[in-house]
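Thread title: Can someone regenerate the structure for this chain?

I was given the following input by a collaborator and told the matching structure tokens would be attached. They weren't. Posting the sequence so someone can regenerate them.
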Amino acid sequence: MSLRMIVRQPGGPECLIAETFTPQPPGPGEVLLRQTAIGVNFLDVYHRSGLYPLPQGIPGVEAAGIIEAVGDGVRAFSPGDRVVYGGPPVGGYTETRLIKAERLHLLPADLSDDVAASTFFKALTAHMLLTRVFPVAPGTRLLVHAAAGGLGVILTQWAKLLGAEVFATVGSDAKAELAREAGADHVITGRDADFPAVIAGLTDGRGVDFAIDGIGGTTLEKTFASLRKFGTVASIGQAAGPIPPVDVTALGPIRSIALARPSVMAYAAEPDTYRSAGQAVLQAIASGITATIGQTYPLKDAATAHADLESGKTAGSTLLRP
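Best answer:
Regenerated them for you:
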């Protein structure tokens, strides 16, 4: 028997219910994967709460594990191979799962399951943001919110590797230290900090070229105010609550800024993109771009992990241990 966490009705963390099931043999093109580490992402909260639909009722978009069996037609993998995946299909909060072999990336021997599971999906998101949404280059001024979180740390590390100047916002002094360790050039501390004013002072009133906002709520409008003319904001979440309707006049013509709403799930659903971006992510991890694992919970305690994530108690990446 295997354990999985399922959501029968969307709602709060308490809606994550443990149940046991009997794993089935893999079908054509599938593998049976025994998961060893499961990454927790804010996307899982959106699925659990009902903000986004949750097919099959099982959250989770990132994990590493060991292949136990392969179905007909699977040639690239064998039982015993260590692999990682990120993106669709949703359903990662489980000890074992059936998954298409085409969704898997083989792990190098020197990369631990924990690092892979805490980094892969977030680094895939970073790759999308820093290469497709806004190609970051030497001298780019980038604003990263929640820079001490799992995604924030990776964004900062990768942007610095590309030569960017990183402006980071965090909620506490302890988290500020994590952002600095990741390489942030300027760290703005405090949930109520007037970060547009600070950025204006640091850039002679010009603002940043690119801002990544996963906070939402009333923060997005302040993020707009942090941009230079013809800059770009990527809105990738709403950890602080729903985003008020955006009037296009808030973007221009006076400000002349662009607003993107990219989805890493859509990015990872493109087969060619997923293969090439996944390899780029593994190369980035090999170069030292990895998440800071802040906390680990047993899979059965996924509700506690969600509650801590939503309340801001966590720092770095969160793992579930099957």
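The chain has a mean pLDDT of 96.
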